[in-house]
UniProtKB/TrEMBL annotation:
Signal peptide feature range: none
SMART domains with a match to the protein in the record: PH
GO cellular component: cytosol; perinuclear endoplasmic reticulum; plasma membrane
A matching Pfam family: PH
Keywords assigned: Coiled coil, Lipid transport, Lipid-binding, Membrane, Phosphoprotein, Transport
Biased composition (Basic and acidic residues): 681-709
GO MF annotation list: sterol binding
Positions of the PH domain: 13-106
UniProt-listed Gene3D superfamilies: 2.40.160.120, Pleckstrin-homology domain (PH domain)/Phosphotyrosine-binding domain (PTB)
Chain intervals with Polar residues compositional bias: 136-147, 268-277, 335-349
Organism listed in the record: Salvelinus namaycush
Name assigned to this protein: Oxysterol-binding protein
Cell compartment(s), UniProt: Membrane
Length: 774
């Protein structure tokens, strides 16, 4: 056996690597292993190639004992739990390893002691005044450490001087001794001693040079530490000064506002002001509520809101009409909750039949481990719909059911249908668009891609007065059509296709297509699109979802528009996370309402009393200042059910989406076997079933292409029965069962619209039109 190569430390000196022989058992004896000493840990591998993925064993030197047995053998043990019997190829190599191990052990013990000391001293350290005091203490600690290092090196230098002095004296004495004529053996011994003395002096010089280099390096680091500490201290001092100035400005503005001296509108109607001030003595607490100070809101869209003049706040029910007439505005609460509750047409006031009790739990999500990178490394740059994914990344509902989840806050559309003002109705529609994203904040699982022809019905006619139907109308590219109709006077329809890209660190999902909502009473026709969804930390870290982009909710009958902006999350932003802001304007561009909130919690709206151009912003853009009434809540997210973290963070509605129901179509998502198996926790069976369904779908598509070729008398090298759109994307040669593509006369968009027949087929139990997709 050839002698192993001697281990050599890395240039940094913190890692020692090399081959050693390790005792395995009495049959195999000593086996050659690759050992790595780093950070106080001794690890070994069978080969150098295993260092990246498989460690055969590791021992902590801080608690280990190192013993030498003979010229080549030594033992490392940590008290009985682990014992390594090792053998080097030579005595020199063994000595190198022993030296490296002893140094590493001393360093590990010292680091452990320092860590324990710092943990004990932390609670008893005296309090400091402000952040600057903490920086000064850290600076003095660094200086003390450097002084200690310097004194130690000075001691080494003194020792070296003494060694050099005595070595020189010894060499002189030996030189004089060499002048004396003695025997040949004596001369040889004297020369040997002289050589050793010279080597000793050279070694001492090398030691002092190394110590001098260490001191220079420590001093260089000290300068960098001092600079960083000074910079941190200055930044904290500036931050304290800025906060103090902001607090003073806030206090000044609040006092000025309560004195009604900052808003020019307060001077426009002295009679009303005297009336309000005269009644303030007997209604001080109410005055404080009405004149609540609102923090100025800096919005990326370029506007600021401030509270309006007190004359616009309604003091009581008796002067609502007077204030509205004087200000030339409509009542702000034309469709509030009281009017909905007292409406005789509201279903709450009617005697209804007992409805079905829905389930509130599903089986807990199993804890299966999976190597994510082994799957995702081959998927970078591909569309999500073309990546074969195991169910481990899914949640047990389909994309059609996800679309149906948009109706969780259908009450917003019920309220909008009662509104007499189209502008306020637009506020509720905008809140509905935001509410559809609230269920995604913790939902990092991917919905099942629907099979072509798959459908999903959500019949809540008895409970909530609406029912909806979804159908997968295309597979390449994937597109789903959705239609919902309510007894309370609104219809919602949408066709959504997804363009998604995996970028390595994050996944971007860009919904294409539009959503439309039509109100029967006013004939108002609204349309909007969805924003981009981004899933972060795909490979490393905890998954989290963000929504970003802009939405224009347009009323095509009146020309009113609500421009919503979903601010992307930023570590450096001072705004709240998941912030959404918006402005409702009429066809002339005049602002009437301001919306603000977050897409995962709530939305509020405020009526705009007056607007004017403010000062230029940080980017030179002129910001609009809106004077608004006190904000009212439009929408608030429902709390998640108990134990939602173990049930895929499903909402109360999502828990019922996969619940079996009688009479649904054979193509309904509830009947999908792989989805049902996943919900039951049988993931291995679900993966096998998922592959079977996907292969069956591919076979059906190939057969459909061959039939299209034969019908068109195309050669084999022809279009393969696949239609090609204008953008070059292949379209499925498939005719939807319950939807048909038409051009909307109001928006001019081409989309799949419900053509009828589904609910009639359900009543008669006639599903002959449905294909066998499962």
């Amino acid at each position: 056996m050839s002698e192993p190569k001697a281990p050599t430390p890395t240039p940094a000196g913190d890692t020692y690597k090399g081959w050693l022989f390790k005792w395995t058992n009495y049959i195999k004896g000593y086996q050659r292993r690759w050992f790595v000493l780093s950070n106080g840990l001794l690890s070994y591998y069978r080969t150098q190639a295993e260092m990246g993925h498989t460690c055969r064993g590791t021992i902590n030197l801080a608690t280990a004992n190192i013993a030498v047995e003979d010229s080549c053998n030594f033992v490392i043990s940590n008290g009985g739990a682990q014992t390594y019997h090792l053998k080097a190829s030579s005595e020199v190599e063994r000595q190198r390893w022993i030296t490296a191990l002893e140094l590493a052990k001393a360093k590990a013990v010292r680091n452990q002691a320092e860590s324990d000391d710092s943990g004990d001293e932390c609670p008893t350290s005296p309090p400091t005044s402000g952040q600057g005091g903490g920086a000064r203490n850290s600076n003095s600690e660094v200086q003390s450490t450097l002084r200690t290092l310097g004194s130690k090196v000075e001691d080494l230098s003194t020792c070296n001087d003494l060694i050099a002095k005595h070595g020189s004296a010894l060499q002189r004495s030996l030189s004089e001794l060499e002048g004396v004529r003695l025997g040949g053996d004596t001369d040889g011994k004297i020369r040997q001693v002289t050589e050793r003395a010279t080597l000793f002096r050279i070694t001492s010089n090398a030691m002092i040079n190394a110590c001098r280099d260490f001191l220079a390096l420590a001093q260089a680091h000290s300068k960098r530490w001092q600079k960083a500490l000074h910079s941190e201290r200055d930044q904290r001092i500036r931050l304290e000064e800025t906060l103090e100035q902001l607090a003073k400005q806030h206090n000044h503005l609040e006092r000025a506002f309560r004195g009604a001296t900052v808003l020019p509108l307060s001077q426009s109607n002295p009679a009303l002001n005297s009336k309000i001030s005269g009644s303030a003595k007997g209604d001080a607490s109410d005055e404080d509520d009405e004149n609540e100070f609102f923090d100025a809101m800096e919005d990326p869209a370029g506007f600021i809101t401030v509270p309006a003049d007190p004359k616009y706040h309604r003091r009581s029910g008796s002067n609502i009409s007077g204030l509205s007439a004087e200000a030339g505005i409509d009542d702000q609460s034309l469709c509030d909750e009281q009017s909905l509750g007292s409406n005789p047409e509201s279903p709450q006031s009617l005697d209804v039949e007992p409805v079905r009790k829905r389930r509130t739990k599903i089986p807990d999500k199993p804890n299966y481990s999976l190597n994510l990178w082994s799957i995702m490394k081959n998927c970078i740059g591909k569309e999500l719909s073309k990546i074969p994914m195991p169910v481990n990344f899914n949640e047990p509902i389909s994309m059609l059911q996800r679309l149906s989840e948009d109706l969780e806050y259908y009450e917003l559309l019920d309220k909008a249908a009662k509104c007499q003002s189209s502008l306020e109705q637009l506020c509720y529609v905008a809140a509905f668009t935001v509410s559809s994203y609230s269920t995604t904040v913790h939902r990092t699982g991917k919905p099942f891609n629907p099979l072509l022809g798959e459908t999903y019905e959500l019949d809540r006619l008895r409970e909530s007065g609406y029912r909806s139907l979804c159908e997968q109308v295309s597979h390449h590219p994937p597109a789903a059509a959705h239609h919902a109709i309510s007894e309370r006077g609104w219809t919602l329809r949408q066709e959504i296709s997804l363009a998604s890209k995996f970028r390595g660190k994050y996944l971007s999902i860009m919904p294409l297509g539009s959503i439309q909502c039509v109100f029967e009473k006013s004939n108002n026709h609204y349309s909007w699109k969805k924003v981009t969804t981004t899933v972060h930390n795909i490979i490393v870290g905890k998954l989290w979802i963000d929504q970003s982009g802009e939405i224009d909710v347009v009323n095509h009958r009146t020309g009113d528009c609500c421009h919503l902006k979903f601010a992307p999350y930023s570590y450096f932003s001072r705004d709240v996370a998941r912030k959404v802001t918006g402005v409702v304007t009429d066809k002339e561009g005049k602002a009437h309402y301001v919306l603000s909130g977050t897409w995962d919690e709530k939305m509020e709206f405020s009526r705009v009393m007056q607007s004017n151009k403010g000062e230029n912003g940080t980017e030179g853009k002129q910001k609009t200042v809106y004077q608004t009434l006190k904000a009212k809540e439009l929408w608030r997210k429902n709390p998640l059910p108990e134990g939602a973290e173990t049930m895929y963070y499903f909402s109360s509605l999502a828990l019922t989406l996969n619940e079996s129901e009688e009479g649904v179509a054979p193509t309904d998502s509830r009947r999908r076997p792989d989805q049902q198996l996943m919900e039951a926790g049988r993931w291995d069976e679900a993966n096998a079933e998922k592959q079977r369904l996907e292969e069956k779908q591919r076979s059906v598509r190939r057969e459909r292409e061959r039939e299209a070729q034969r019908a068109a008398n195309l050669p084999e090298e022809g279009a393969e029965g696949v239609e090609v759109a204008e953008d070059g994307v292949h379209q499925d040669n498939y005719e939807a069962m319950w939807f048909e593509r038409t051009e909307d006369v109001v928006t001019g968009e081409s989309m799949h619209v419900y053509k009828g027949g589904y609910w009639e087929a359900k009543d008669h139990g006639n599903w002959d039109i449905c294909p066998d997709i499962y």
